[in-house]
């Protein structure tokens, strides 16, 4: 009888053995969620996964899909500067590289970007935060804003959007690209400009420039036609 009891535990004994193991698994899951939350809240995620694109990073010029007449699109560059948490550290060389490489990507549509002006403006962290919270009010009150160009705003991060690598304000013809990104910053810029030129996200093709968070740059012929049609209206 005793041997049988050892070989075939009762249901109560089974439950006693099972509950501690179950509790340990629950605690592990809770612990993981707490750690993940702390990483997100404290900004450690930025330090682990977000990087500055090194100066000199190449982007092969993409081949034209239409061999059409080149459309020139003007860019108005606005760099937020301060010694706080959100001011951009970009230099003129950084800006030249990101625009040149983005142009190489958009060569597929025979669209070329030219910098109309570059301005560095001193703003506080609170002002940068207000830009992301109320972009329309901020931009329309900004003397440096140019409604006839695509306005490119550079800051160190996107403030309260730590897991986002870029954002487009389509109605304002404006995009924001942080210094620190999870993919090449010039592909982020090319992607966000794609939104300004009328393109949505591509949810299926990871090789597409418009695939969310992908480090890719392909554009379809249909997207080329849409982008060119929009660019001609600028």
UniProtKB/TrEMBL annotation:
GO process terms (BP): proteolysis
GO cellular component: extracellular matrix
Organism in which the protein naturally occurs: Candidatus Colwellbacteria bacterium RIFCSPLOWO2_02_FULL_45_11
GO terms for MF: metalloendopeptidase activity; zinc ion binding
Source taxon at top rank: Bacteria
Domain Peptidase M10 metallopeptidase span(s) in chain numbering: 181-216
Entry keyword annotation includes Cytoplasm: no
Protein's name in the database: Peptidase M10 metallopeptidase domain-containing protein
């Amino acid at each position: 009888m005793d041997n049988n009891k050892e070989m075939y535990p009762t249901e109560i004994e089974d439950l006693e053995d099972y509950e501690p193991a179950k509790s340990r698994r629950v605690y592990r899951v809770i612990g993981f969620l707490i750690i993940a939350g702390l990483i997100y809240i404290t900004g450690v995620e930025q330090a682990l996964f977000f990087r500055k694109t090194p100066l000199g990073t190449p982007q092969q010029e993409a081949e034209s899909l239409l061999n059409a007449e080149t459309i020139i699109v003007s860019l108005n560059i606005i760099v937020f500067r301060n010694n706080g948490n959100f001011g951009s550290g970009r230099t003129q060389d950084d800006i030249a590289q990101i625009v040149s490489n983005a142009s190489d990507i958009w060569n597929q549509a025979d669209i070329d970007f030219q910098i109309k002006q570059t301005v560095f403006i001193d703003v506080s962290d609170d002002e940068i935060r207000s830009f992301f919270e109320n972009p329309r009010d901020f931009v329309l009150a900004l003397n440096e804003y140019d409604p006839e160009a695509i306005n490119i705003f550079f800051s160190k991060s996107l403030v309260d959007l730590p897991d986002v690598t870029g954002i487009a304000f389509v109605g304002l013809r404006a995009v924001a690209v942080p210094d620190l990104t999870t993919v090449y910053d010039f592909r982020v810029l090319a992607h966000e400009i794609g939104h300004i030129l009328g393109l949505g996200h591509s949810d299926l093709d990871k090789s597409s420039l418009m695939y969310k968070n992908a480090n890719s740059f392909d554009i379809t012929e249909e997207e080329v036609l849409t982008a060119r049609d929009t660019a001609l209206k600028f």
